[in-house]
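Lecture 7, part 2: worked example. A protein chain together with uracil.
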Amino acid sequence: MCSAVSFTGSAADFIPPHPTLTTLRDAAAQCHGCDLWAVGTQTVFGEGPRAAELMFVGEQPGDQEDRAGEPFVGPSGRLLDAALEASGIERSRVYVTNAVKHFRWERGEKGKRRIHKKPNAMEIRACRPWLEEEIELVKPRVIVCLGATAAQSLLGKEFRVTQHRGEAIESPWAEAIFATVHPSAVLRTPSAARERAQQEFFSDISRAGAYMKLHAERRERR
Ligand code: URA
Ligand code: SF4
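Predicted complex, written out as structure tokens:
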């Protein structure tokens, strides 16, 4: 693959004036903010209610999301759903999105499989304006970063998920940000350690859920 593709360097060039989630989604479909517009099949924008109090931010769409045009509908999405259910959080009430909105992949050495490649710092930066606008419009009370890419986008490059997973972190983006591992990392864990990795992932998600409930009660009592 060596075709040169043109892009502007930032999604900010495509954001409409006074956006709503609908006009934002439509504009994102035309984004050429980074080179990934030519790599993925389509822009996979966030999904969920405009008034969601809880937002999940993943890395980038995977193979199935790229085909479906929806976030977290593949294996990682199923594990996320299980974690939400175990924590008593309804998926229909949360907003789910990604730090990067196009699938980055490379063809496997032989065969047809599309191999996921991590987005680089330039792509994460170029795509962040979409995420910023989603946060601005939804105004979630709590944001959960799923994995290092989302954490890098919202908490900076120095942030280490392994050191701060499951903690309520202060940030200008929301009342609190939580970070945990990406569900695909749990799915890739060798089987002997997978059960434990899954429990830790579920526990991080339930901490975010508990924080939402505790603070909502405190607010109501005021
Ligand atoms: N992994 C992600 O980070 N996001 C998706 O939407 C799917 C898999
Ligand atoms: Fe635009 Fe983001 Fe897609 Fe790059 S990954 S083209 S910045 S939507």
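Helices lie at 21-28, 63-68, 75-86, 121-138, 148-155, 161-164, 183-188, 191-221. Residues 11-221 form a domain with the Uracil-DNA Glycosylase, subunit E fold (CATH 3.40.470.10). Keep this in mind for problem set question 3.
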